[in-house]
Amino acid sequence: MKIGWIVSGVIMILVTVPAGLVGYSGSGALDGDIPACDSGILGLNVCDRVVMLEDGVNIPDAAAILLAADVSVDWGSQNVWIAIVPASDEEYCSNGNDGYLVCDRDSLTYLAGGPYSGGSFDWTLEGGDIRFVAGNSMEAASESVTIEYTYNARLSPLLGSILTFLGVAQILIGWKF
User: Fold this and answer.
1) Cβ neighbours of 109 (radius 10 Å)
2) How far apart are CA 150 and CA 108, in angstroms?
3) CA-to-CA distance for 7 and 111, rounded, in angstroms?
4) Which of 7, 105, 148, 172: CA 20 to 30 A from 49?
5) HSE on the CB side for 51, CA within 13 Å?
6) Where do the domains of the chain lie, and which CATH numbers do they carry?
7) Cβ atoms of 93 and 46 closer than 8 Å
8) How far is CA 15 from CA 10, 44, 135, in A?
9) Spatial separation of the C-alpha atoms in residues 100 and 174, rounded to whole Å
10) What is the CA radius of gyration of the chain?
11) Helix locations, 44-97, DSSP H
12) DSSP letters along 16-27, please?
């Protein structure tokens, strides 16, 4: 019996099971000012146009395979909306100022959130390049919102199963030899 194999197999299982089932959770908040539709900023009417951040987030496909993550976003306003779109939707946008692009609302592909999201959305991690967009349905007033988010990331079932299998295999090898 090889104690090293058995101990490493037990440690692998003891680490994999909590990481796969429970994972890591967190939360945070951001404050944002969303202009009114008729604000006149950049000639922008955000009732039919939206503001997209120029900087996106690249989520490697491998991360989506190895991790299962759920994100919940809540901003508590029915007038303001936020969404996640593919970065390739940039082609429907024109250059704005200060790190923003101005886009046609109806041309975008919404992965989560959007004009009819009702003040919140849930999103499951997927690989690819994404960007964030925001809009306002109020013509007369801008609105300040606090965007609250929570997330839970854990090992994907595939990776958790593989690591658990390897841990059991190490225990059996150590026990048998």
Assistant:
1) 12
2) 25
3) 44
4) 148
5) 26
6) 24-155 (2.60.120)
7) no
8) 9, 51, 43
9) 58
10) 22
11) 61-66
12) HHHHHHT-EEEE
Give me the pLDDT at residue 5, please: 82
> How far is CA 21 from each of CA 7, 128, 150, 159, rounded to the nearest angstrom?
21, 25, 17, 12
b/e code 117-136 from CB counts within 10 Å (16+ = b): bebbbebeeeeeebbbbbbb
Residue whose token pair is 């099971």: 17
Q: Please list the alpha-helical segments (H only) found in the chain.
A: 3-21, 61-66, 157-176
Q: What is the C-alpha separation between 105 and 79, in angstroms, rounded?
A: 15
**CA–CA dist 38, 40 (Å, integer):** 6
Query: Using one digit for the tens of pLDDT, what is the confidence trace for 48-58?
Result: 678 888 888 89
Q: Which two tokens stand for residue 154?
A: 């854990």
Dump pLDDT digits (tens) for 111-164: 999 888 888 999 998 889 999 988 877 665 677 788 899 999 888 888 888 888
Q: What is the band of 88 on the pLDDT scale with cuts at 50, 70, 90?
A: very high
